[in-house]
Amino acid sequence: MAKDGLICLGVIAIIFLSVGGWEFSAWQNSFVCDYYPCDSNTTDYNAGIALSTIGSLAALWWVVLLVKYLKQRKSAQAGTSTALNNNNNNISTTPQITQPPAIKKKEGAGFCGNCGTSVQTPFCAQCGCLV
Fold first, then answer.
1. How far apart, in whole angstroms, are the C-alpha atoms of residue 77 and residue 48?
2. H or E segment and range at residue 110
3. CA 53 to CA 45: how far, in whole Å?
4. What sign does the CA torsion over 66, 68, 71, 76 have?
5. Using one digit for the tens of pLDDT, what is the confidence trace for 37-80?
6. pLDDT tens digits for 95-115?
7. How far apart are CA 48 and CA 55, in angstroms?
């Protein structure tokens, strides 16, 4: 869940809790107790219970999602740094340069790649190229 969703859920929880509190105060102020037995409006009381319950559940769900979001964010940040700095794995950070196997030259006759003459030394006697 994105950060915007967490903010919206927190605002919704605050709204439901505050409206539920207003309903409770409306219920308490609705008592008529002059000279006869008190009669109250139970609709405000029931609405206050319902709205406060919804607000409490939204607040609890908001806390659960906030903890989950923060754990994911922390593990995502920690996962990239520990994978690069972990020396226990056998991944080398420096590239290994492999050289082709050395070509063994035959003792004795060789041929010049430039002029094609048979040579016995590292340099061609006819053209002077390195064999």
1. 43
2. strand 110-111
3. 12
4. negative
5. 666 678 888 888 999 999 999 999 999 988 998 888 888 776 55
6. 677 776 665 555 556 788 788
7. 10
Find tokens 């520990």 and name the residue. 82
| Site of tokens 């927190």 | 10
* Of residues 103, 84, 82, the one with CA closest to residue 93: 84
Helix (H) or strand (E) holding 56: helix 42-85
Q: How crowded is residue 124: how many other Cβ atoms within 10 Å of its Cβ?
A: 20
Comparing CA positions, the residue from 24, 15, 22 lying closest to residue 58 is 15
Q: Which two tokens stand for residue 28?
A: 């308490």
Residue 6 in contact with residue 69, Cβ under 8 Å?
yes
Tokens of 71: 């754990």
Note the pTM of the prediction, 2 decimals: 0.50
Cα 22–Cα 27–Cα 31 angle in degrees, nearest 5 = 140
Give domain limits for the chain. 3-83
